[in-house]
Amino acid sequence: MSSESLPLGLKQLGNLSELCVRQKVTHFANNKYVVMTPDGSPVLFAREDSGLMDRLLMGTSRALHINVFDTEDKEVMRFRRPYTMGPDKMEVCVCGRGVALVRKEFTFLKPVINVNDAADRPLFRVKGPLAITSQCDFEIYNMEKKRVGAIRKKWGGLVREAFSSADNYVIELPADLDVRYKAALLGTCFLIDFMYYEN
Questions:
Q1: Which residues span the membrane (predicted)?
Q2: Would you say 2 and 162 are in contact if contact means Cβ atoms under 8 Å apart?
Q3: Which letter does DSSP use for residue 195 in this model?
Q4: In angstroms, rounded to a whole number, what is the distance separating the alpha carbons of residues 90 and 63?
Protein backbone atom coordinates (compact mmCIF):
# COMPACT_ATOMS: atom_id res chain seq x y z
CA MET A 1 0.00 0.00 0.00
CA SER A 2 1.30 3.44 -0.94
CA SER A 3 1.79 5.54 2.20
CA GLU A 4 0.52 8.67 0.37
CA SER A 5 -2.88 7.12 -0.21
CA LEU A 6 -3.33 5.79 3.33
CA PRO A 7 -5.93 7.27 5.70
CA LEU A 8 -4.59 9.10 8.76
CA GLY A 9 -5.02 6.16 11.17
CA LEU A 10 -3.00 3.82 8.96
CA LYS A 11 -0.27 6.41 8.42
CA GLN A 12 0.05 6.78 12.19
CA LEU A 13 0.02 3.01 12.65
CA GLY A 14 2.80 2.68 10.07
CA ASN A 15 5.21 4.63 12.28
CA LEU A 16 4.62 2.75 15.53
CA SER A 17 6.51 -0.15 17.09
CA GLU A 18 4.21 -0.34 20.11
CA LEU A 19 0.44 -0.11 20.46
CA CYS A 20 -1.58 0.14 23.64
CA VAL A 21 -5.07 -1.37 23.43
CA ARG A 22 -7.54 -0.42 26.15
CA GLN A 23 -10.96 -2.00 26.34
CA LYS A 24 -13.71 0.29 27.61
CA VAL A 25 -15.99 -0.97 30.36
CA THR A 26 -19.35 -2.01 28.90
CA HIS A 27 -22.14 -3.97 30.54
CA PHE A 28 -24.37 -6.05 28.22
CA ALA A 29 -23.21 -3.91 25.29
CA ASN A 30 -20.80 -4.42 22.43
CA ASN A 31 -17.12 -4.23 23.33
CA LYS A 32 -15.29 -0.99 22.56
CA TYR A 33 -11.55 -0.39 22.39
CA VAL A 34 -9.13 2.51 22.03
CA VAL A 35 -5.79 1.88 20.31
CA MET A 36 -3.16 4.37 21.47
CA THR A 37 0.47 5.31 21.11
CA PRO A 38 2.74 4.56 24.10
CA ASP A 39 2.23 8.15 25.32
CA GLY A 40 -1.57 7.69 25.37
CA SER A 41 -2.56 9.51 22.17
CA PRO A 42 -5.55 7.80 20.46
CA VAL A 43 -4.88 6.42 16.98
CA LEU A 44 -7.83 4.09 16.38
CA PHE A 45 -11.23 3.34 17.89
CA ALA A 46 -12.75 -0.13 17.56
CA ARG A 47 -16.21 -1.42 18.34
CA GLU A 48 -17.73 -4.85 18.21
CA ASP A 49 -20.80 -5.36 16.03
CA SER A 50 -22.86 -8.29 17.30
CA GLY A 51 -26.43 -8.78 18.47
CA LEU A 52 -27.59 -8.95 22.08
CA MET A 53 -28.94 -12.47 21.59
CA ASP A 54 -25.60 -13.60 20.16
CA ARG A 55 -23.82 -12.24 23.23
CA LEU A 56 -26.33 -13.81 25.64
CA LEU A 57 -26.74 -17.19 23.94
CA MET A 58 -23.35 -17.77 22.29
CA GLY A 59 -21.14 -15.96 24.81
CA THR A 60 -17.46 -16.05 23.92
CA SER A 61 -18.15 -18.33 20.93
CA ARG A 62 -20.24 -15.70 19.16
CA ALA A 63 -19.66 -14.57 15.60
CA LEU A 64 -18.91 -10.87 15.32
CA HIS A 65 -17.44 -7.99 13.37
CA ILE A 66 -15.11 -5.37 14.81
CA ASN A 67 -15.12 -2.08 12.93
CA VAL A 68 -12.03 0.10 13.38
CA PHE A 69 -12.07 3.87 12.79
CA ASP A 70 -9.32 6.47 12.84
CA THR A 71 -9.50 9.82 14.64
CA GLU A 72 -11.17 11.34 11.55
CA ASP A 73 -13.99 8.76 11.93
CA LYS A 74 -12.99 6.94 8.75
CA GLU A 75 -13.29 3.15 8.82
CA VAL A 76 -9.82 1.79 8.13
CA MET A 77 -10.10 -1.87 9.22
CA ARG A 78 -12.67 -4.54 9.75
CA PHE A 79 -12.21 -7.82 11.58
CA ARG A 80 -14.66 -10.67 11.11
CA ARG A 81 -14.85 -13.63 13.45
CA PRO A 82 -17.21 -16.15 11.84
CA TYR A 83 -19.00 -18.79 13.81
CA THR A 84 -17.12 -22.03 13.28
CA MET A 85 -17.20 -25.58 14.58
CA GLY A 86 -13.42 -25.77 14.05
CA PRO A 87 -10.56 -23.66 15.42
CA ASP A 88 -11.26 -19.99 16.07
CA LYS A 89 -10.29 -17.54 13.36
CA MET A 90 -10.38 -13.85 12.50
CA GLU A 91 -10.48 -12.40 8.97
CA VAL A 92 -8.67 -9.08 8.59
CA CYS A 93 -9.64 -6.36 6.08
CA VAL A 94 -7.84 -3.05 5.58
CA CYS A 95 -9.61 -0.34 3.59
CA GLY A 96 -12.12 -2.92 2.34
CA ARG A 97 -9.56 -5.48 1.15
CA GLY A 98 -8.85 -8.84 2.76
CA VAL A 99 -5.21 -8.83 3.89
CA ALA A 100 -4.81 -11.61 6.47
CA LEU A 101 -6.32 -14.59 8.22
CA VAL A 102 -5.64 -15.25 11.90
CA ARG A 103 -6.30 -18.83 12.98
CA LYS A 104 -5.96 -20.68 16.28
CA GLU A 105 -3.92 -23.84 15.93
CA PHE A 106 -5.06 -26.99 17.69
CA THR A 107 -2.54 -27.75 20.45
CA PHE A 108 -2.60 -29.70 23.68
CA LEU A 109 -0.49 -27.37 25.82
CA LYS A 110 0.49 -23.82 24.97
CA PRO A 111 -1.94 -21.83 22.79
CA VAL A 112 -0.64 -21.08 19.28
CA ILE A 113 -2.17 -18.64 16.80
CA ASN A 114 -1.09 -18.52 13.15
CA VAL A 115 -1.14 -15.23 11.25
CA ASN A 116 -1.31 -15.75 7.47
CA ASP A 117 -1.48 -13.34 4.55
CA ALA A 118 -4.44 -12.98 2.18
CA ALA A 119 -3.28 -16.02 0.18
CA ASP A 120 -3.13 -18.04 3.44
CA ARG A 121 0.69 -18.12 3.44
CA PRO A 122 2.20 -18.05 6.94
CA LEU A 123 3.63 -14.80 8.29
CA PHE A 124 3.83 -15.21 12.07
CA ARG A 125 3.17 -17.66 14.88
CA VAL A 126 1.96 -16.25 18.18
CA LYS A 127 2.69 -18.50 21.16
CA GLY A 128 1.00 -18.09 24.51
CA PRO A 129 2.08 -19.30 27.94
CA LEU A 130 1.25 -22.67 29.43
CA ALA A 131 -1.10 -21.02 31.94
CA ILE A 132 -3.32 -18.13 30.85
CA THR A 133 -3.39 -15.58 33.67
CA SER A 134 -4.54 -12.00 34.07
CA GLN A 135 -1.05 -10.82 33.07
CA CYS A 136 0.91 -12.79 30.49
CA ASP A 137 2.76 -12.55 27.19
CA PHE A 138 1.90 -14.01 23.80
CA GLU A 139 5.22 -14.02 21.92
CA ILE A 140 5.29 -13.23 18.17
CA TYR A 141 7.71 -15.22 15.97
CA ASN A 142 8.41 -14.88 12.26
CA MET A 143 8.71 -17.92 10.02
CA GLU A 144 12.46 -18.11 10.72
CA LYS A 145 11.47 -18.74 14.39
CA LYS A 146 12.91 -15.39 15.44
CA ARG A 147 11.02 -13.47 18.12
CA VAL A 148 9.86 -10.17 16.61
CA GLY A 149 7.38 -8.89 19.20
CA ALA A 150 4.72 -9.73 21.75
CA ILE A 151 1.11 -9.17 22.70
CA ARG A 152 1.15 -8.48 26.43
CA LYS A 153 -1.97 -8.78 28.56
CA LYS A 154 -1.57 -6.21 31.32
CA TRP A 155 -2.97 -6.47 34.84
CA GLY A 156 -5.78 -3.93 35.12
CA GLY A 157 -6.06 -3.83 38.91
CA LEU A 158 -8.18 -5.85 41.31
CA VAL A 159 -11.48 -3.99 40.88
CA ARG A 160 -11.22 -3.74 37.11
CA GLU A 161 -10.24 -7.40 36.70
CA ALA A 162 -12.84 -8.75 39.15
CA PHE A 163 -15.89 -6.71 38.17
CA SER A 164 -15.56 -6.01 34.47
CA SER A 165 -14.33 -7.57 31.25
CA ALA A 166 -12.26 -4.49 30.39
CA ASP A 167 -8.72 -5.52 29.51
CA ASN A 168 -5.48 -3.77 28.60
CA TYR A 169 -2.86 -4.96 26.11
CA VAL A 170 0.45 -3.75 24.77
CA ILE A 171 1.46 -4.94 21.29
CA GLU A 172 5.17 -4.81 20.44
CA LEU A 173 5.87 -5.20 16.73
CA PRO A 174 8.54 -4.27 14.18
CA ALA A 175 8.31 -0.56 13.32
CA ASP A 176 8.96 -1.26 9.62
CA LEU A 177 6.30 -3.98 9.33
CA ASP A 178 3.76 -3.49 6.53
CA VAL A 179 0.69 -1.74 7.92
CA ARG A 180 -1.49 -4.63 6.68
CA TYR A 181 0.33 -7.02 8.96
CA LYS A 182 0.27 -4.58 11.86
CA ALA A 183 -3.51 -4.69 11.36
CA ALA A 184 -3.35 -8.50 11.39
CA LEU A 185 -1.50 -8.46 14.74
CA LEU A 186 -4.08 -6.03 16.11
CA GLY A 187 -6.77 -8.51 14.99
CA THR A 188 -4.78 -11.24 16.76
CA CYS A 189 -4.94 -9.20 19.96
CA PHE A 190 -8.73 -8.93 19.68
CA LEU A 191 -9.02 -12.67 19.01
CA ILE A 192 -6.91 -13.39 22.12
CA ASP A 193 -9.20 -11.13 24.12
CA PHE A 194 -12.32 -12.98 22.99
CA MET A 195 -10.87 -16.47 23.34
CA TYR A 196 -9.22 -16.12 26.74
CA TYR A 197 -10.40 -13.01 28.57
CA GLU A 198 -14.01 -12.33 27.62
CA ASN A 199 -16.35 -12.88 30.60
A1: none
A2: no
A3: I
A4: 10
Could you tell me which residues come within 8 angstroms of residue 192 by beta carbon, excluding any fewer than 6 positions away?
113, 126, 128, 138, 151, 153, 169
**pLDDT tens sequence for the chain (199 residues):** 555 678 999 999 999 999 999 998 666 678 899 999 999 999 999 999 876 666 666 666 778 899 999 999 999 999 999 887 778 999 999 999 999 999 999 988 899 999 999 999 999 999 999 999 889 999 999 999 999 999 999 875 544 444 445 689 999 999 999 999 999 999 999 999 988 887 6
Burial state string for 166-187 with b = 16 or more CB within 10 A and e = fewer than 16: bbbbbbbbeeebebbbbbbbbb
Contacts with 43 (C-beta within 8 Å, 6 or more apart), sequence order: 9, 12, 13, 16, 19, 35, 36, 37, 70, 71
pTM of the model as a whole? 0.89
CB 111 within 8 A of CB 132: yes
Amino acid at 166: A
Neighbours of 35 (CB within 10 A): 24
